[in-house]
Write a structure and sequence with these properties.
The complex is a heterodimer of chains A (about 850) and B (about 230). With about 850 residues, chain A is of the alpha+beta class. Chain A is built from 26 helices and 21 strands.
Amino acid sequence: MIYIPFFLAQRNMRTRWGRTLLTLLGIVLGVAVVLAIQMTNQSTLDSIRQVFDQATGQASLVVVPANRGADKLEEEALFRAEKFEGVLAAAPSVRVQTLLASEAKSWQIAFSMNGIAAGNVLVLYGVDPDLDAQVRVYKLSAGRMPLAGEYEAILPEKFAAEKKLSLGDELDILTPSGSDHLEIVGLLTDEGVALLNDGVVAFAPLQVVQDLFGMGSGIDEISLRLESAISEDPAALASFKNRLNERVGRDAEVIYPAARGQLVSQMMATYQLGLSFFSIIAVFVGAFLIYNTFSMTIVERTREIGMLRAVGMSRWGVIRMVLAEAVMLSSVGSLLGIATGIVLARGLMQLVSEVIIPVENLARVPAQGLAQSLGVGVGVTLGAALIPAVQAARISPLEALRVRTRSIERVQAAVWLSGIALLIIGRVSLYHIAWPAEIRFSAGSTSILLTLLGATLTVALASGWLERLTRPLAAAIYRREGALGSANVRRSVSRTALTVASLMVALTMIISINSLAYSFKEDMTAWIVNALGGDLYVRSPITMRDSFARLLASVDGVQFVTPTRIMLVRAGQRSLPNDQSVGDTIVLNAIDPATFRQIGDMEFAAGQGDTQANWRRLEEGNAIFISNVVADRYQLDQGDTLYLHTRRGEKGFYIAGVVMDFTGQGLVVYSTYIDLQRWFGESGADRFTIKAAQGYSIAAVAEEIKARYQQRRNINVQTTEEFKDSILNLMEQSFRLFDVLNLIGVIIGALGVINTLTMNVMERQREIGGLRSLGMTRRQVLRMVLAEAQALGIMGGIYGLGFGYAIAHVMILGTNMMVGYDLEFLFTAQPYLVGALIALVVVQIAAIYPARQAARINIVKAIKYE
Amino acid sequence: MGEVAVTALNGVDFAVERGEFVAIMGPSGSGKSTLLHLLGGLDSPTSGEVILAGQALSQLSDDQITRFRRQKIGFIFQFYNLLPTLTAAENVVLPLLIDGRPAAEYKARLQVLLSLVGLEDRASHLPDQLSGGQQQRVAIARAFINDPEIVLADEPTGNLDSRSGKSILDLLRKACRELEATIIIVTHDPSAASYADRVVFLKDGQIVHHLNNGAEGISVNKIVEVMASLEL
């Protein structure tokens, strides 16, 4: 027995294949974007976790110094850990960054969203070969594990092949005293520990590495393998961790291995938020297209539906017929969308790999992402088709018997009043409600969507007088027929509103995202210029001695030199918010205020008082500057105290000022060298910033420094211009991702225009036939339709530019609230010009096809057309 | 202008016998289409009652009327109103498809009707592959597929040339005879009305004259004469 709703629906889809394809495209794009973003986010997080999982292998817990990044664990901690009941193996290790001696000259800095990273640095682990094999995965393809105390090493076979190294060769590496070599006794397959640091890693006996790098008996971490009864029971593991924490002493801390991925995960969070918001917008725009298409199908089939009602189809039968079409379209569209999404995801992951972290698992489709995108595809389509279905059901059977032209749709007051109400609600929600942090993103996204929906509903009211405003332009460009065409947009208010809305959303996203990018760029540039200052940076893979500053200062053309030491520290328990139990990893920049200020300055946040006084307070000691991100995260301000884990326990530092900083996604503090030594036991510099003297060429000074010191000290010299360009380039790449998604929005907007105009032409065939019979030429008909498109484009442009400006403000406000930055809205004309171009030119291009269809109408057929 | 109440029909008392072929005539605005809509349950009277096969339509809900239409009434429209996505055969059985009847139930009747309208060899054609006359034949077959109590035709020849129109009217006459169908057509064409057993003349919403005849129909001249006398 035929199930009539599906039977009629599939026939309709087949016959009106153009309309079917349009609707499918909307569904496919919406589903593809949602899935691609889900996959990208999931794969990126997986990659981060995988890197750290590979490092930990079978280790369930890790013992690290309480003040990570500065201090080392002593043997006492190892002794206590290995003797603790329940521990099967306690494997100590150290980790250093070095270079192959052969690559020292070509050493360079690389940039990613994680911050500055060393480009070709080799990570060398010092391990107890027997113990470490019990906690981490070592798979040898050749050779053997190194012997304890011997100058031997193993490395991944892929890395060895790249560097043309084989078993038995010498691995020459840089050390603080120059260089040394280790014999390669084993090669690792491409799994387990060989995946660390993207495969640029080597393993040598613990004592050997400690000797080579002057670490004494210090240990960086102890990986613990536990009894299965503890490791496989989360509650037991948590209890064990707490007890062991008390045992290992205050200078050590027991953490879960996953915690080490925290810093990168933090950095990913904001990027993922942006992508997620975009997927919501894509769905919103896709829904518009689907609703538009279904509405038009109903209009097209009014007489047909009236006939079905006349011959006995019930209202429910009509609804079922329309929804059956929606179900079939959504099923096919969702499947195609998933396939498209996987392809799109590969592209996005490639972009993310360049910008953030290498992403593996390019083909893996997360179950949750799949379910979500299927839900979106089916749910949104059914939702978007529901109103047209109900409208179809209301078509009277008398429609089948009437011969009439569609009259001008009256604007219902309820519609535009609802629009104004939604605009007010959106504004109040965005600007006047302090949403809790955990729902801030959802509330913000919803508020923006409500604002856009409200704007759509007001088109019903505004289209009349907007069209009157634009009509003179239509007449000027397209002559008398232009005025006729322009006036046509007022005939179907709902259709015009939807088309204008699609364009509005596309333009709004382009303008707001580009404005956000511009503000970001300008702020970052100002920060680079002000805060970083200087003309040259001198860096080394190995911490440089303080005394090197004097040598640099002696070079002709060098006016000032200032050192910076960068290390990771952790926020103390007393500073943590109530809902946080583990402190964030924060980047600590130790500076020498006196020389720092000779070269540059900090960019203080608003309301920080006298900057001279701030610097004086910092120099007094036991004080820090914090970034605005840290200030926002810990709800701190100037004059408060931030607790940090130090070598001497948790220490409160007076906050002398809040500054702008984009390093490490903003989680940055600045202290002095005196405090660095006093509290963290560290010295040396990771970077020297140099100011060239007047009259000296920066390039020449750089060459002189390289000539004197590059070979001996394996330094990298880079101008600040190059550094600035690298960071800005990175930022451009990051926002390139959103350009791709913006393009999808524009395509959907253009499809909406094609849809509307095609429908309008179809509805008015008789009228157009009549005009042609009265003497209107084909060219004039073409101009008439193009004028109609122009009116739609201008309306969409006005709304898009206006709301783009408003939403740009909202996005900056949102970014500041969620990430803690202090970006300022800066106007730039470029996105508005692009928006205007799309509204005027792209829309006209989209109108060419329906305009030509109208021009080609056969007069006789058209007059007979019903 | 504001909305103005228009009385389409006023005091119309009208009865049709089973197997009768009735034509309703009148100028534009006389209320003939409105009368047809009321008879088919497509519209409801402000006052009065429409009783079809013993059922008062005003007592039925919207769903009940819909089902009643599906099962008891056949419609023929001026502009055929075939579904462009269905073949001729599928258009014919559309009311039964909507009613959920299995193919086995109507296969034989379909063949009878296609034969009656002379479209056996066009059964698998789509509407745009048929001429206007052929499309109207499909519409006629559709109107009869559910063995209706009554068939209502609104200007069935209004969109056809005279030859096609004649063949349609011959077909209706034939259907009335062979299927014992009750048919009411609305027309402004005297030659179309001449096929009927009875012609009812409407003017300004009221029945102003009846013209009866036997099985041979009514002469066109007679109809024109009546129309002239009534200044229609």
